[in-house]
Specification:
Spore Coat Polysaccharide Biosynthesis Protein SpsA, Chain A; nine-stranded mixed sheet; 42% helix; 18% strand
Length: 277
Amino acid sequence: MNDPLLPCVSVLLSTHNRAPTLATAIESVLAQREVTLELLVVNDHSSDGTAMLLEQWADDARVQVHHNQENLGLARSLNWALEQSRGMFIARIDDDDEWTDRYKLKKQLHWLRERPQAVLLGTAYLDEWGRHVCNPLSDHDIRQQLLKRCPFCHPTVVLRKEAALKVGGYNADLAYGEDWDLWLRLGRIGELGNLADETVVKRELDETLSKRFFYDQLRTANEMVRRYGGDYPGALRAHVLHGLSRLFFTLVPVDSGLHQIVRKCYQSVFSLASRQP
């Protein structure tokens, strides 16, 4: 029997020098309705006043704050919070994002409870450019894309804690794509899904972040196919896609006009593939 004193959902938030947006992220979690939750905030050795900002929630029993004595990075910080969490379900939010649907968690918990075999559920979201993004909804359609791209937005997801621990949590050895890697391992043991409901506004405070890590993304994509190609369909097509992408970006500058055109075409193709009949 579930302990009524324990939270149903543990929300994990790791932050590093994002004080200007952190309060919005936290308050959007605490505004969730009809669900018991705890929010575990890991201050990953910030130097911008984050520690002082977090003091305003010192009297809120739902908020637990941990201050890293050194910068451990996102994956290690999330793994620490995962181990400390008390909820049966785990949710994620980034320090520059906002949950805009106050019933986000309630909807996701309802879906997961109706499907005991399901381990991970995301939602649609509003991206950095103000566009509605709906990833594939069904387990079948998600698996068709899972080697080609990451069909989940990290701050939208809810997953089963037991499943996350079973597959080993986040891979802290990856420079990029620790979330995508976790989804691929979770997909080995259970059902995956997305809701069409838009529940999150995703923002990117540092506009150079994607550019700085773009080549890491390309290398990581190839590594995902090598590691998980036997578990999901379309491994050969994914290899070709990522190989062509790496060749393309040896010739075309990241974030150039041609890159933007190709990115829009790429997103359109996967968006069409994600639509349900």
